[in-house]
Amino acid sequence: MLKAIRPFTRVIALSATLLATAFTSQAVQAQEQTEFKLAWTIYVGWMPWDYGAASGIVDKWADKYGIKIEVVQVNDYVESINQFTAGQFDATVMTNMDALTIPAASGVDSTALIVGDFSNGNDGVVLKGDKTLKDIKGQQVNLVELSVSHYLLARALESVNMTERDVKVVNTSDADLVAAFTTAGVTSVTTWNPLLSEITAMPSTSKVFDSSMIPGEIIDLLVVNTDTLSANPKLGKALTGAWYEILATMSGSDDAAIKAKSFMAEASGTDLKGYEAQLASTKMFYAPSDAVAFTQSKDLTATMKKVSEFSFEHGLLGDGAPDAGFIGIETPAGVYGDAANVKLRFTSEYMEMAAKGQL
Amino acid sequence: MTRIINRQPGRYGRLVLGLMPFVILLAVYIVASDARLAENPSDKLLPSLSSFVDAITRMGFEPSKRTGEYLMWNDTLASLHRLCMGVGISALIGLAIGVGNGMIPFMRSPLSPLVTALSLIPPMAILPILFITFGLGELSKVVLIVIGICPIIIRDIQLRTDSLPNEQLIKAQTLGGNSWQIIARVVLPQTLPRLIEAVRLTLGSAWLFLIAAEAIAATEGLGYRIFLLRRYLAMDVILPYVFWITLLAFSMDWSLKRLSILAFPWYHKEQGGRHE
């Protein structure tokens, strides 16, 4: 009997090996390449990438450096970061906290190439009724657990000398938060725009805390795989050049700016007025010099320390992490945490080139 | 000449052939995981077998640092509780309405088209309505399972009741049985094994709806944990959880089958023993 199946086992073992090789060869190999993929997801501060791709600005800059950049929209934000971590994308948009807890904590050395903006009221804690933040004690709070909302809630509670023990956090998918808020059992949510404005537009709600009270802590980045970037500085230059050209287009008040912003508004499911309201609660770094100053400031290190501590307390840095500084974070002002294990880097190099007009 | 359809593997051959796909999958996994880990030791995508052991120890046998609970058991109990409630309620409703529809024409006329229509609504499509009606708590999770599998059980039981030989019912009537007696003594015993089969077949969907409900809003549960940890790619916990869910589902299915064989041996004799 065993003799009869032997040829089969050989064939199967062979195909298994082939399959395994296919599986592993996806790992990123740092080498010079000419084609790159950028992933973006819907969020006020990331819509410019969509416009950049549609208007040809991204192609223009890619051509200038002799490369190709494919801009891909991903429907699911976390999935886009997971795909970046798995090596499917060379560059992906994400927040500073997710950059630390997903790619960096998975050992993928990542560089924040462009600091696009920070949330300045775009994330908020909302209670039903006429309430203040102190009333949150004992309530259940629906939010996307382990996201920046969770971080914002922790910071909000800290500001009134409470901790997460004083509330009950219920993990709720962002896709269902608005519908959830209309049900009787839900009394408090923490979320981001456009959901936040949808919720605060409902009658008898109080926004008791928002990210403008912790300015500069929830940062939206364009993150690039460090090995890919160092092997291909052209990618960094093309992306940064394209980004500031898009921002320059949309920051004006002429027809081109209105056209660009209307495009972004439509792509994010709102109208020009709604999109401008979201922009108002986002601190966009339209001028590269502002982003450079923000990146080089010591405050960024302090923020990343807070984010690391939050992440460590919630187990987001992985089992191997003995303390919050396990993953080193390099900023122009210095390194926070383990200098021998730097996995997340903030660089102002390319943004400086943009500021000096050297791109 | 021996035809392939008549060649049977021996006892050991069957065992080896049955295990082979699992062994191959495991080997593929280990090779792929080793290759990725050699390149990046903190890769989270395909963790090594030892990190699975660590994760299981941590989740199942050490109290959580934050709450002091044994997370895996908590999650398992919460999920099983929801699942059993949902499946149990569905089975009871399914039996009552299914037999009623099959036996009482005045019940079947209004209910049967309704059940058919309801069974065609994809439950996930009406999730937002479920939330608004039943809230985000335990109730809506159980209701999602019930809406998802109850119509299927009803239709299955109805078909079984329909297919009972007319002679039996006529004989029972000539013996003087009234409607209630016939349903309770002739029809019900013969539909019960079919009910167990229907439950077995819908268990997979029940798990699917449970995980989906827990992914949307929850504070504990197997699906909750998987969707929470997905946020930072903790495959070392997610994969053992998936394995655990499969094991739970398999043992539920197996126990139901044994129960059915013990309780209704006549039914299984009728079914024949091929591929037993």
From TrEMBL, chain A:
SUPFAM superfamilies: Periplasmic binding protein-like II
Any one Gene Ontology cellular component term annotated for this protein: periplasmic space
UniProt key word RNA-binding: no
Localization terms from the record: Periplasm
Lineage: superkingdom: Bacteria
Entry keyword Signal: yes
Keywords on record: Signal
Domain SsuA/THI5-like: from-to ranges: 64-242
Cross-referenced Pfam families: NMT1 (PF09084)
Record-linked InterPro entries: ABC_transptr_urea-assoc_sub-bd (IPR017793), SsuA/THI5 (IPR015168)
Signal peptide stretch: 1-30
Primary subcellular site in the record, as a coarse category: periplasm
Protein family per UniProt: Belongs to the bacterial solute-binding protein SsuA/TauA family.
PANTHER family, per the entry: ALIPHATIC SULFONATES-BINDING PROTEIN-RELATED, TAURINE-BINDING PERIPLASMIC PROTEIN
Name of the protein in question: Urea ABC transporter substrate-binding protein
Automatic annotation (TrEMBL), chain B:
Topology of the protein relative to the lipid bilayer: Multi-pass membrane protein
Compartments, as annotated in UniProt: Cell membrane
Alphabetical list of PANTHER family matching this protein: ABC TRANSPORTER PERMEASE PROTEIN MJ0413-RELATED, ALKANE SULFONATE ABC TRANSPORTER-RELATED, MEMBRANE SUBUNIT
Chain segments annotated as transmembrane: 12-32, 80-99, 111-133, 198-218, 238-256
ABC transmembrane type-1 domain ranges (all copies): 76-260
GO terms (BP aspect): transmembrane transport
Keyword Cell membrane tagged: yes
Family that this chain belongs to: Belongs to the binding-protein-dependent transport system permease family.
Annotated InterPro entries: MetI-like, MetI-like_sf
SUPFAM superfamilies: MetI-like
Keywords assigned: Cell membrane, Membrane, Transmembrane, Transmembrane helix, Transport
Source species taxonomy: Bacteria, Pseudomonadati, Pseudomonadota, Gammaproteobacteria, Alteromonadales
A cellular component annotation (GO) from this entry: plasma membrane
Keyword Transmembrane belongs to the record: yes
Protein name: ABC transporter permease subunit
Domain of life: Bacteria
